[in-house]
Amino acid sequence: MSLSTVLRASVASWLTSSARLNLQRTLAEFSRKIRRQPHTIHYFHRADDPYCQLMVQVLPDIASRFAVEIKPLVVEQLPANMYPDPARYEAYSIIDAARLARLYGLGFVEDAVVPDRLAVGMVNRFLASKQQDPQFFQIAEEMGAALWRRDLDTVRRTCGLADLGDAQLEANQRFLRDVGHYASASLHYAGEFFVGVDRLDHLERRLNKLGLGDGEVEFEVQRLWRYELENLERSVTDQSVEVYFSVRSPYSFVGLQLIHHMAQKTGVRVDLKPVLPMLMRGMKVPPAKGRYILFDTAREARLENVDFGHICDPLGEATWRAMQIGFALMDDEKTGGKPGQAFEFFRSFTKGVWAQGIDGTSDAGLSRILSNAGLSNAWIGKALDRAETEQKAEANRQEMFRHGSWGVPTFRAGGETFWGQDRMWAIVDALKQ
């Protein structure tokens, strides 16, 4: 391993560490006190974001339980390069928001469809004119419900006289970029972002540590899926979960660890579907998005007790070698080889590059990864050629697209599609059905 690789792994370890996060939080609090500023959370709202429809229902509770001020800011034009497949994302987010609403006991319009674009523009501008209104969240919830049920009469009647200027929206969008983020349904507090209701437990913990709240963490229900596994044990052994993942995705790494735990507890089968990472398919990941993914993965991994952060980026050669060996192991299983060996390899590889700083480009690194998986390093010489590997990976990607997803990790269970390592609770629900 080269000196530069070692140094990069050390830097990554620091950037993703709880020590760095705690230092950042301490400095932010010191700065706030010096400037005598209140505890202020900025919330970025977009009328046609289904996750925002959930957020406006829960933020009044956060404001009542914690000594903070929540300032809503309405945005409309989000950076297009942050969303590689906007149409699939939009369609999926409506389905996913409905699932989240059921989980958290929130309201969401049944059979919601993509809102009317002209009506969305009217509502966004109307809400931008109401940002200072103490009843903003109630107003936003009511107008959002009208949008999702396509009640255009209510939208026109309520929003028709609003100031249609774009200056406020543009200022809010600039502020979102300036503080380093890109998504609506997000909260920004003292340098840290919390996106969606399923990240509110991170915010609760942070505010509780500052002595600002009631000491409770009420928004962690999405993390309680492990307690349901006992009831699933032995009842789902004839079912399977398909896992579309990339060895270069930190979320995929965490997802593989969690789905392995589920499989160990329940006996459910795991059907692996490796795909090539976005950057190796000619797509880009903007720096702001890359930073958020890294820091958010670190937070999530800590809460899920998954080691993370000593990183040796597998982009390029390491990814190719991992997939060539992994596909060879999968082919061997199909012809009578040891079941589960490919899963153990991919778990070991992703842990090696995302948590142990192992260089996946070298034979020495791969030998260590194979050994950690209980496999012989002879598999290095049995790897598939690149052309066949690429063909198999592309077939998996196309299959993932047909199931309505655009990125990794994606899971399929019970005929449903789930995006993200944080949807284990939804997979459990699907298996129960």
In short:
The chain has 433 residues and is α/β, with parallel strands linked by helices. It has helices spanning 3-15, 18-34, 50-65, 86-104, 117-128, 136-148, 152-159, 167-178, 200-209, 229-232, 250-266, 287-303, 317-334, 341-355, 363-372, 386-402, 424-432, and strands spanning 40-45, 69-74, 186-189, 192-195, 240-245, 269-274, 410-413, 416-419. It starts with a helix and ends with a helix.
Write the layout of secondary structure elements.
Layout: H1 3-15, H2 18-34, E1 40-45, H3 50-65, E2 69-74, H4 86-104, H5 117-128, H6 136-148, H7 152-159, H8 167-178, E3 186-189, E4 192-195, H9 200-209, H10 229-232, E5 240-245, H11 250-266, E6 269-274, H12 287-303, H13 317-334, H14 341-355, H15 363-372, H16 386-402, E7 410-413, E8 416-419, H17 424-432
Helix pairs in contact: 3-6, 5-6, 5-7, 11-14, 13-14, 13-16, 14-15
